[in-house]
């Protein structure tokens, strides 16, 4: 078990604080979900190097050996989701008028429409979700002969140590922040990302 201090930092012997205030984009008074990512890089240090000069990142990073780092306050938003998928489109339950608008919209327009909704009519977004990154690179799918976008990349499998740490971390966050089990997602489930990202993550 762990606790969260007044700065939104976790107090636990199992989590090392590596806070990057440049990732924090404003207050996050409520947490409705957790989004699990893979970094695209092969080491934790490469992610730390990126975070030092970036405004895009997540709240936690789990290294391949299972070490957990907290990189942003749980009381602050972080840019980790990207363009938001339409929840009603994914669940096949849009009202006819909204379905027509969504089908005519670009992905960016769809995302803007989703951000105008209150949770739970939309997926958790940057403004109300915790991001957890798993160190893991991607490689080109050898079945692709030419570059055709995100689908041609394959992320490496998540390690057993990472999954053990992820299960513990997600369990603690859900308990402390009252996040429903069905509101924990892999990144591609809520945004337009490489389908294999975090595909082997389990919690």
From TrEMBL:
GO biological process: cell wall organization; peptidoglycan catabolic process; peptidoglycan turnover
SUPFAM superfamilies: N-acetylmuramoyl-L-alanine amidase-like
EC code: 3.5.1.28
Keywords, alphabetical: Cell wall biogenesis/degradation, Hydrolase
KW Cell wall biogenesis/degradation (keyword) present: yes
Catalytic activity: Hydrolyzes the link between N-acetylmuramoyl residues and L-amino acid residues in certain cell-wall glycopeptides
Entry keyword Cell wall biogenesis/degradation: yes
Domain of life of the source: Bacteria
InterPro entries per the UniProt record, alphabetical: Amidase/PGRP_sf, Amidase_domain, NAMLAA_amidase_2
Gene3D superfamilies per the UniProt record, alphabetical: Peptidoglycan recognition protein-like
Occurrences of domain N-acetylmuramoyl-L-alanine amidase (ranges): 31-190
Gene Ontology terms for molecular function: N-acetylmuramoyl-L-alanine amidase activity
One Pfam match: Amidase_2
This protein's name: N-acetylmuramoyl-L-alanine amidase
């Amino acid at each position: 078990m762990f606790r969260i201090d007044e700065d939104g930092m976790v107090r636990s012997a199992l989590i090392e604080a590596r806070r990057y205030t440049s990732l924090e984009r404003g207050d996050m008074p409520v947490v409705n979900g957790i989004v699990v990512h893979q970094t695209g890089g092969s080491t934790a240090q490469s992610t730390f190097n990126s975070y030092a000069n970036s405004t895009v990142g997540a709240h936690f990073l789990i290294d391949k050996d299972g070490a957990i780092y907290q990189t942003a306050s749980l009381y602050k938003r972080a840019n980790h989701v990207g363009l938001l998928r339409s929840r009603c489109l994914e669940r096949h339950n849009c009202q006819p008028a909204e379905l027509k608008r969504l089908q005519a919209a670009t992905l960016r327009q769809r995302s803007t429409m989703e951000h105008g909704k209150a949770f739970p009519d939309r997926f958790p977004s940057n403004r109300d979700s915790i991001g957890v990154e798993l160190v893991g690179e991607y490689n080109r799918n050898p079945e692709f002969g030419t570059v055709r976008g995100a689908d041609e990349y394959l992320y490496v499998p998540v390690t057993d140590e990472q999954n053990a740490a992820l299960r513990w971390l997600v369990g603690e966050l859900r308990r402390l922040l009252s996040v429903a089990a069905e509101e924990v997602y892999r990144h591609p489930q809520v945004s337009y990302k490489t389908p294999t990202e975090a595909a082997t993550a389990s919690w």
